[in-house]
Structures are given as C-alpha cells and as structure tokens.
Design goal:
By secondary structure, the chain is an all-beta fold. The strands form three sheets. The protein has a three-stranded antiparallel beta sheet, with no helix packed on it. A three-stranded antiparallel beta sheet has the order 2-3-4, with no helix packed on it. It has a three-stranded antiparallel beta sheet with strand order 5-6-7, with no helix packed on it. The structure holds FE2/S2 (inorganic) cluster.
C-alpha cells in the first residue's frame, strides 16, 4: 500500500533554493531547480553526515549544484550524482515525491 505524506506547500520553496526537513527522525531536503522539485536524504555518501552548513543551505554559491559543507563534494541537482570531491561517482539517496494539490508529498 502506498503512503502519501504531505511535507510543505511548494509556494514556500523559491526556484534555485532548498529546504531541510525532518520527518520521523529522517533527515531530508528538497531542492527546487528549473521548475522541478527533487527530494533527497540529507546524508553525504562520503561520511554519512548532513550536507548543509546552515539551515536550508544546500546549494553551492552559483546554485548549480548541491554541495556538502564538510569536504565540499558537489552533486548534480537532478540526479544527486557526485561530480567532484572525495565521493566522486557516488550518489545521494533520492526519495520518491509527488506534488498533490500544491503540496510536496513523500510517497512510500
Ligand atoms: S562528508 Fe561530504 S564530502 Fe566529506
């Protein structure tokens, strides 16, 4: 059976910005980029630590990549694929989501 959990209203997430979320002790973050919203586990594949250095700060300065604040690994926003840094070639864990009635929802 599919469980749908509303997370937030997508109007709260401007394009090229990110938002950290905690849900049942799961650390997640959402990124809005070029009209799409992506949801990932907030865990760097290098050391397993959270990615952000300040709340909701997950992107590099040009807002083109997700950046881990610990050792600077860069990940593509659309696939979570690491293109630079100590975990090159690894991926963030994507989390299934859908927009339903203006809400970003976790789908499990
Ligand atoms: S913990 Fe993220 S790059 Fe090392």
């Amino acid at each position: 059976m599919t469980t749908v959990t509303p997370l937030f209203n997508i109007s709260e997430l401007a394009d090229n910005s990110a938002k950290g979320l905690e849900l049942n002790q799961r650390n997640l973050f959402a990124v809005s980029h070029k009209g799409q919203i992506y949801l990932y586990e907030n865990r760097c594949p290098h050391k397993g630590v959270p990615l952000e250095w300040m709340p909701d700060t997950f992107l590099d300065i040009e807002k083109q990549f997700i950046q881990c604040s610990t050792h600077g690994a860069l990940f593509t926003i659309d696939e979570g694929f690491c293109i630079a840094g100590p975990c090159s070639g690894a991926r963030l864990t994507a989390v299934a989501c859908e927009i339903i009635n203006g809400q970003l929802c976790l789908v499990e």
